[in-house]
Amino acid sequence: KQHHDTFAHHPDARVRSALSFERAGCIGFVLLANAKPAAFLHFADVSKYENASIWPLADNEAALVNVITLPEHRSRHYASLLIAHATASLVPSSYQRAIAYVWWNHGASLRAFKKAGWRRIGISVEISRRNGRLYSIHIPLRAGCYAKGSWAVWY
């Protein structure tokens, strides 16, 4: 809330779009560099979570729903630092675990989550039929994944 005006009037549309997560009631974190937003992310709990078909979320879990590092601040490890600190502030105090979805081919995100101490817990595959109906298959890689941070990679 302290940086609301900074986000609302920022020239980068991605920064302004972060307010939609705030308005939806997601839990937001921001990393500042020289008193300006450099990276930010949001967590959703089960009541605000919209991707249950991709990977189900339990009542005691949170989903990291967006992570953005502004272009001028990339390659400085800000995303992994923010992911690690934000996760540590929520897990295990408020939630048993956190999950996130990372595209299988998004190398920067995969590296950031790994560096932040997260690990892959499963794969979610969506299959689209000709009639437009989507089917999701969830494949856990380990039974009973209890980690402070986990991620699910989906294709």
- If you average the pLDDT, what whole number results? 82
User: How many helical elements?
Assistant: 4
> In total, how many beta strands?
7
What is the CA–CA distance across the termini? Answer: 34 Å
The main sheet orders its strands as: 1-2-3-4-7-5-6
Tell me the overall shape.
Answer: globular
Strand content: 25-35%
Produce a short descriptive summary:
The protein has 155 residues and is α/β, with parallel strands linked by helices.
Fold topology:
Layout: H1 4-8, H2 13-23, E1 27-33, E2 36-44, E3 61-69, H3 78-90, E4 97-103, H4 107-115, E5 119-128, E6 134-140, E7 150-154
Parallel strand pairs: 3-4, 4-7, 5-7
Antiparallel strand pairs: 1-2, 2-3, 5-6
Helix pairs in contact: 3-4
What does this protein look like?
- 25% of the residues lie in helices and 35% in strands.
- The C terminus is likely disordered.
- The protein is an alpha/beta fold.
- α3 packs across α4.
- The protein has a 7-stranded mixed sheet with strand order 1-2-3-4-7-5-6, with helices on both faces.
